[in-house]
Write a structure and sequence with these properties.
The chain is an alpha+beta fold and about 400 residues long. It is about 50% helix and about 10% strand. The longest helix has 24 residues. The protein binds protoporphyrin IX containing FE.
């Protein structure tokens, strides 16, 4: 099956529905020709996400030395007990309270971006709003000084925008790691109350994070929290604009937005898949047994529309109440930034629709371009008109 081409990117659901109907797990081949197993049903997804015999460890020995240390210590690529230790230390610093405290800054950043947006006719909402907002918020969270953020936008273009090949990606990540190392030295000399400062200071039962671990964590937060949140905001605006009745409801009662955001997460999951896991022993899913040593991905897009779990899964219904989407994963690697992503999306949508209630797509839906590739589900561009022409 021709998965992961342009047609699939624009509308992956028919192909995924076919696979899901055929069975819970399938052997597929990535665009790069790498074979792996893809899980397409909700029950089996939970089984995989809670089975400790599936490992997150991936070889990093192909990478340049300066990146290797930062990636090898990332908790998304570790199993217990290392993962448990890293997650505990980070959770002590990246608390829900820290996320809540960031609200006023998120609102300011949002308003500034919206001021700039309003000066352009037919702005691209992805380029001017959905992408820079989470990037600025993560810089704020980590404590990257305002004057030092400009290179992050260029690096993010390479990492997210795909403006270059894999070598440029590695170069951008190496540059970020070098920057974080330097920043960390400065923060050690002058303690700060931002997240980087807190990660340096955190002590748990006499244990603390090494510099490599703090750098790895900062890189992980940046990469994990950026494109995903940008996709969530873009996918939400797209879905709301295409459903006038939803827009009316949201405009009348912004209190509905948290439920709308959850339904966007389910129907247009910003992370199209989980990250890779590798089987360390044979595992049986339905009638299929996957041998040891194989790569497994969960199609979050597919499992979040599994009719075995969700009533009428193709209908956008924020009031559905049957919950349980897996857009943020599940189990020990459940997204650490989920509270932040939710707050960001809610503020972004409240402010955007509050200021521009007439906002609409500036192109026909079939003209929209979607990002290709396996891991993400989001728009490359979303040209909008902020007000109805009179
Ligand atoms: C893990 C999705 C935003 C930080 C994950 C996972 C998913 C996910 C599916 C689990 C991957 C797996 O098990 O293979 C999302 C989505 C987001 C979002 C859809 C936005 C809508 C964020 C933000 C941050 C963040 C804003 C931080 C600032 C992380 C981290 C992990 C993670 C650190 C690894 C947790 C661990 O290994 O224990 N995310 N994420 N994410 N996410 Fe998010």
């Amino acid at each position: 099956m021709a998965l992961f081409d342009d047609e699939y990117a624009a509308n992956p659901h028919p192909a995924l529905a076919e696979l899901r109907q055929a069975g819970p797990v399938h052997r597929v081949t990535s665009a790069a020709g790498i074979p792996f197993w893809m899980v397409t049903r909700w029950d089996e997804a939970r089984q995989v996400l809670t089975d400790p015999s599936l490992s997150k460890r991936q070889p990093v020995d192909q990478l340049p030395a300066e990146l290797r240390a930062a990636l090898a210590t990332q908790m998304l690529l570790r199993d217990p007990p290392d993962h448990t230790r890293l997650r505990r230390l980070v959770s002590a610093a990246f608390t829900p309270r820290r996320t809540q405290a960031l609200r006023p800054r998120i609102e300011q950043i949002t308003d500034r971006l919206l001021d700039e947006l309003a000066t352009v006719s037919e702005p691209d909402l992805i380029d001017r709003f959905a992408v820079p907002l989470p990037l600025e918020v993560i810089c704020e969270l980590l404590g990257i000084p305002g004057g030092e953020r400009r290179p992050f936008h260029a690096w993010s273009n390479v990492i997210i925008g795909g403006s270059g090949g894999p070598a440029d990606m590695v170069a951008a990540m190496s540059a970020i790691v070098a920057y974080f190392r330097d920043l960390l030295a400065r923060k050690r000399a002058q303690p700060s109350d931002d997240l980087l400062g807190a990660l340096l200071a955190v002590v748990d039962d006499g244990d603390r994070l090494s510099d490599d671990e703090v750098v790895g964590m900062a890189l992980l937060l940046l990469v994990a929290g950026h494109e995903t949140t940008a996709n969530l905001i873009g996918n939400a605006v797209h879905l709301i604009c295409r459903q006038p009745d939803q827009r009316e409801r949201v405009l009348k009662d912004p209190g509905l937005l948290p439920a709308v955001v959850e339904e966007v997460l389910r129907m247009a999951s910003p992370s199209a898949t989980s990250t890779y896991r590798v089987t360390t022993r044979p595992i049986t899913l339905g009638a299929t047994t996957i041998p040891a040593g194989e790569q497994v991905l969960i199609s979050l897009l597919a499992v979040n529309r599994d009719p075995r779990r969700f009533t009428d899964p193709e209908t956008f219904d924020p009031a559905r109440g049957d919950g349980g989407h897996l857009a943020f994963g599940h189990g020990i690697h459940f997204c650490l930034g989920a509270p932040l992503a939710r707050v960001e999306a809610q503020i972004a949508l409240t402010r955007l629709f509050g200021r521009h209630p007439e906002i609409q797509l500036a192109v026909r839906p079939e003209e929209l371009r979607w990002r290709t590739g396996l891991l993400m589900h989001g728009l490359e561009a979303l040209p909008v008109r902020l007000r109805t022409e009179t």
